[in-house]
């Protein structure tokens, strides 16, 4: 049975989602979880895009021990050099070179002839191969490229030293039948004296990303590229968790398997959701809140008699399980540490453990029983926090005779300096946000505000997601906050979002070079 590799591009393509801006610490934490999940390669970023992206790729390359680390590069030598420099300490470095091959991209974006594109492939894949052993090549917008020219471009890359050939459905245009035929055509006609691995990279514009990816596997693809939770620009990328579980459930049909540790799926999804600020829809396949819920009486009756009547995926398969060791306010440090180990958090430092246990005791005073989801939320909210600027510290609310609310917000910086600000609002959340606006004194527009309960019940922790727009630049930022109290969670989320805006205004978050920019005009 074939073993399918998984390349995750949540930290590169996924970060192109409007509003998603992972910090370097968040990227490293996600990369470590992806390694635990069984991902074979991580596209850690586009090193030439910005100093932040370069440093993130470098940090991830320094951290991972089992997973290959890939840097994206346009067919430009300076891009390839940046990728190589960022990957110098990677145990398994890879460089991913791409150039557009469809008529519309060559004419309007690249302003290159087909012959010039072929020459660029030869030059830059050869150059990348002189620096690292493993080079991946992508003909951007492959599914809108004429087949004969696509074959020529791919063969040129293989002849120049590429080992992995990625066939991206850049705009989510293709269908499963067409994509299958494209892979069969290339696999049957590309020649090489070494093994070449083909991979799909699907966007979900027409809702067919998972189907297209599985069709490519059926045609002989050996590696899958996508993101956790399907994050990405426009309608997003293929959701890797969907492909991984589909391969498990339909293993006989696809005659393929993978190294994905499926019971780490839920924890991986939850981490990416929290750091991206994008909640997972309830009806999301595999890891959505309703994935294992049965509303229909007929369905409920069938499941009670035999779960296989309506469940093809068990909750335990993807890491959703009942508590085997319930925790409460009387639980001690040993029981807490045992629970962390049971959930796979075995790399928590002593300092982090002390902080986690302290927060656990505070939460346990407010909840009768602490669930696995509560513990995961505590860990995600403690081990990685944005250290720049001021963070939420505390709040006090007072109701006024006229029905308005007055809120005093305390914000604290790394030096433990605390600043208080007070504002009014027609409701508590409005007053909180007005106070934070008053403190940061920035032109910010709130685009969305969502509250999610981490667990069931009236005593659930609240996870608040906000999306804001920096009115001075038009940049969108997502942020989240977690707390037992929904108002505190709202304050944390909004303060985090404002910190991102503050960093952009201060030039800490810099303008990125888009990988869609013309290589001849990299400042676009």
TrEMBL record:
Stretches that traverse the bilayer: none
Keywords noted in UniProt: Amino-acid biosynthesis, Branched-chain amino acid biosynthesis, Cytoplasm, Leucine biosynthesis, Manganese, Metal-binding, Transferase
Pyruvate carboxyltransferase domain segment(s): 4-262
HAMAP family, alphabetized: LeuA_type1
Residues annotated for Mn(2+) binding in this entry: 13, 201, 203, 237
Top-rank taxon: Bacteria
Chain spans, region Regulatory domain: 391-524
EC number annotated for this UniProt entry: 2.3.3.13
Protein name according to UniProt: 2-isopropylmalate synthase
A single cellular component GO annotation: cytoplasm
Assembly and interaction partners: Homodimer.
Family: Belongs to the alpha-IPM synthase/homocitrate synthase family. LeuA type 1 subfamily.
Organism: Pseudolactococcus reticulitermitis
């Amino acid at each position: 049975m074939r073993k399918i590799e998984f390349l995750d591009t949540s930290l590169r393509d996924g970060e192109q989602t409007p509003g998603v801006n992972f910090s370097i610490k968040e990227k490293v934490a996600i990369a470590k979880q992806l390694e635990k999940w069984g991902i074979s390669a991580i596209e850690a970023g586009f090193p030439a895009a910005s100093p932040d992206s370069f440093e993130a790729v470098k940090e991830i390359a320094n951290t991972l021990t089992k997973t290959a680390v890939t840097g994206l590069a346009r067919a430009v030598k300076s891009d390839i050099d940046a990728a190589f420099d960022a990957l110098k300490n990677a145990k398994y470095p890879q460089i991913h070179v791409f150039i557009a091959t469809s008529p519309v991209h060559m004419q309007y974006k690249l302003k290159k002839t087909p012959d010039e594109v072929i020459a660029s492939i030869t030059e830059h894949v050869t150059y990348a191969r002189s620096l690292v052993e493993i080079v991946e090549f992508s003909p951007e917008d492959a599914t809108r490229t004429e087949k004969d020219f696509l074959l020529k471009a791919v063969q040129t890359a293989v002849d120049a030293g590429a080992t992995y050939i990625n066939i991206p459905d850049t705009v989510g245009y293709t269908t499963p039948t067409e994509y299958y035929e494209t892979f069969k055509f290339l696999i049957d006609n590309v020649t090489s004296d070494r093994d070449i691995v083909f991979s799909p990279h699907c966007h979900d514009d027409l809702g067919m990303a998972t189907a297209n990816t599985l069709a490519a596997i059926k045609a002989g693809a050996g590696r899958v590229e996508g993101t956790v939770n399907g994050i990405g620009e426009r309608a997003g990328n293929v959701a890797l968790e969907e492909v991984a579980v589909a391969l498990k459930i339909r293993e006989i049909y696809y005659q393929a398997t993978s190294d994905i540790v499926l019971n780490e799926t839920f924890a991986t999804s939850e981490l990416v959701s929290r750091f991206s600020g994008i909640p997972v829809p309830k009806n999301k396949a595999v890891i959505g809140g309703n994935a294992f819920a049965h509303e229909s009486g007929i369905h409920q009756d069938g499941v009670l008699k035999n779960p296989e009547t309506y469940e093809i995926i068990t909750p335990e398969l993807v890491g959703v399980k009942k508590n085997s060791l319930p925790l409460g306010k009387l639980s001690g440090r040993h029981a807490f540490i045992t629970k962390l180990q049971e959930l796979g958090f075995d790399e928590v430092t002593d300092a982090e453990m002390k902080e986690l246990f302290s927060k656990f005791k505070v939460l346990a005073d407010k909840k009768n029983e602490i669930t696995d989801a509560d513990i995961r939320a505590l860990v995600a909210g403690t081990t990685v926090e944005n250290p720049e600027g001021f963070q939420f510290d505390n709040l006090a609310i007072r109701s006024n005779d006229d029905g308005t609310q007055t809120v005093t917000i305390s914000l604290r910086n790394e030096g433990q300096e605390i600043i208080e600000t007070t504002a009014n609002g027609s409701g508590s959340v409005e007053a909180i946000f007005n106070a934070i606006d008053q403190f940061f004194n920035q032109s910010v527009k709130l685009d969305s505000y969502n509250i999610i309960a981490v667990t069931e019940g009236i005593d659930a922790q609240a996870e608040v997601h906000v999306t804001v727009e920096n009115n001075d630049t038009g940049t969108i930022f997502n942020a989240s906050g977690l707390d037992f109290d929904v108002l505190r969670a709202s304050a944390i989320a909004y303060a985090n979002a404002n910190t991102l805006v503050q960093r952009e205004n201060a030039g800490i978050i810099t303008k990125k070079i888009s990988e869609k920019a013309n290589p001849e005009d990299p400042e676009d």
